[in-house]
Every structure is written in C-alpha cells, then in structure tokens.
Predict the 3D structure of the following.
Amino acid sequence: DGIRDHCVTGVQTCALPILAKPGNAGCSRLGVVAPKKACTFATGRNRFKRQVRESYRVTRPALADLDIIILARKGVADLDNTGIRQRLDTLWTRLIKRAPSLLAPQPQHES
C-alpha cells in the first residue's frame, strides 16, 4: 500500500505533486513529505515545509474536507521562497476547482 493507492486525484508542477482524497475528519488535513533526495540539507527541507504550511494555512478555508499530501521532488531545493509560494498558489487553485467533484457522493456499486 502506497500513498498514491489511497488518493483520488492529484495536481502537480515539476517539483511539487499534490495528492488529495475526501477526508473523514470534518476539516482539511495536510501531510508534507520532504525526503533527502529532494533537498540534501535539513535547512532546505525545513524551509520548504514552512512555506507549505503557511500557504496551506491561508488557503485552508477554501479546501473543504480534503486530506492532502504534498511531495517534494528534486528541484525544490533550487526554488526560492517566492518560487515555492507561486507554485503552491497555482496548485491550490487547481485543487480547489476539482474539490466539488471530489466531495460529491460517489455511487455505490453492488457486487
């Protein structure tokens, strides 16, 4: 079982994929994965996670009831704070557009 097996949809730019699925907690939740492969130094990984958390905090009210995972990929270390925030803003906008279809009740298939 991998992360992708449980996610319904995703949006991404070159170094920042976002995976999402409807949540059960009554609010939106965030998970951030920043491996050493993406950024060798801990300071870079921590900077990335701070930028993600701040961007999420501002966007959270519009995200409804989604469980979200953001994965850092190679190249994220080359981005400055403004570059990370711009990419995140673009991804949040795309995800918000998809959210109504994600949260709509899915038809139950009888087996």
